[in-house]
Amino acid sequence: MDLFENDDMKLINLLPRDGEVYYHGKVLDTLTADMYLDKCLSELSWEHDRALIYGKEIVTKRKIAWYADKPVSYTYSGYTKMALVWPDFLREIKQRVERDCGVVFNSCLGNFYSSGDEGMSWHSDAEKDLVESGSIGALSLGGARKFSFKHRKTGESVSLNLEHGSLLIMQGTTQQNWLHSLPKTKKDVEPRVSLTFRQMRF
Ligand SMILES: O=C(O)CCC(=O)C(=O)O
Ligand SMILES: [Fe+2]
Questions:
Q1: Which atom of ligand 1 is nearest to the CA of 180?
Q2: CA of 23 to the centre of ligand 2 (A)
Q3: Which residue ranges does the record assign to the Fe2OG dioxygenase domain (predicted)?
Q4: The CATH fold of domain 20-198
């Protein structure tokens, strides 16, 4: 039996309070996940992310690619980015993720971490352009990485391992009450892509 499922095979909320996180485990078989990883690496438009931190420009090691139903713009950390339209294979993955999440997504922020030296520090995704209490469905491809949550007030933490072809869902009040991060690691890990499907307000 899976550690993340109870007797009724219903997924267990990984957070003890104030939010909901469900780990669906591997939703894609290895061959399909390998094929999608190759497509993500060769066909998505990866760029280093830029942010203004205290007026200073920071360029991330991690690369991002952003897709949406419309060529909308999204402003965060002082920069405005334009969304690209869905390539067919990404639309296919979106539909797969929607089936498991039971919600419809209108955008996807892809992240590409070429090694364990790249990660994402503590943050939440409750940006003003996201639907309040909307779901985020994150599909992982490539090298497995640790993912952590930390409660904003109590400091409680929860961590899990995100495997190749797996799906993680964050919903409800998770973004308001918890931070999450993808810690860097000294371990020799394969490159990783995460496709974070979102419900944006546009
Ligand atoms: O790479 C991941 O799995 C998570 C990325 C993330 O937190 C984000 O895109 O906001
Ligand atoms: Fe995030």
A1: 7
A2: 15
A3: 104-201
A4: Jelly Rolls (2.60.120)
